[in-house]
Design a protein that fits this description.
By secondary structure, this protein is mostly helical. The protein has one domain (10-140). Helices cover 69% and strands 0% of the residues. α2 (39-65) runs antiparallel to α3, α2 packs parallel to α4 and α3 runs antiparallel to α4 (96-125).
Length: 159
């Protein structure tokens, strides 16, 4: 598989920016676990991120981007199944270290699937007008609560 950067249509760029922050979440979870951070501290950040960023992102994809393909399209069906599985994982509050690790793995795989397969398929099949319409339908990242302003940066080495 090529590591060449994917050319993203401007209409999908906001969703791809969200994906970048989702991949950062995966990294933060992994770093926190590696550093021995109390899983409950990581989970508080993960819950914040899910509520303020990921759930709204899922809704935007489901409401605006996914309808650019047929509802029975296998990639749409796969994405919806993954969204539901991720929602269940994010709401799980037991076996926190294992759950957090599972969230990081599943979210990473999901984002890479959407970027490499689903968004490429949408770009191939949607019209220019449909793709451009997404830019006015999606909430810009700047209007969302900044996950980088979280007080306890458990993913950074303490001096």
């Amino acid at each position: 598989m090529s590591n060449k950067p994917l050319k993203r249509h401007p209409g999908l760029m906001e969703l791809s920016r969200d994906h970048h922050h989702g991949l950062l979440l995966c990294w933060k979870i992994e770093e926190g676990l590696k550093r021995g951070t109390e899983p409950q501290l990581i989970k508080r950040y993960v819950d914040f991120f899910f509520e303020k960023h990921l759930e709204p992102h899922f809704r935007e994809e489901e409401e605006f981007a996914f309808p650019l393909l047929a509802p029975e399209h296998p990639l749409i069906e796969k994405a919806l199944v993954q969204h539901e599985a991720l929602r269940q994982l994010f709401h799980k509050n037991t076996e926190l270290a294992a759950t957090l690790s599972a969230i990081a793995g599943a979210l990473d795989a999901h984002i890479r699937f959407e970027e490499r397969e689903l968004f490429e398929e949408i770009q191939r099949n949607a019209s220019e007008e449909q793709l451009l319409a997404l830019t006015s339908q999606l909430k810009p990242l700047e209007e969302k609560e900044d996950p980088e302003k979280w007080a306890d940066v458990f993913w950074v080495a303490k001096p």
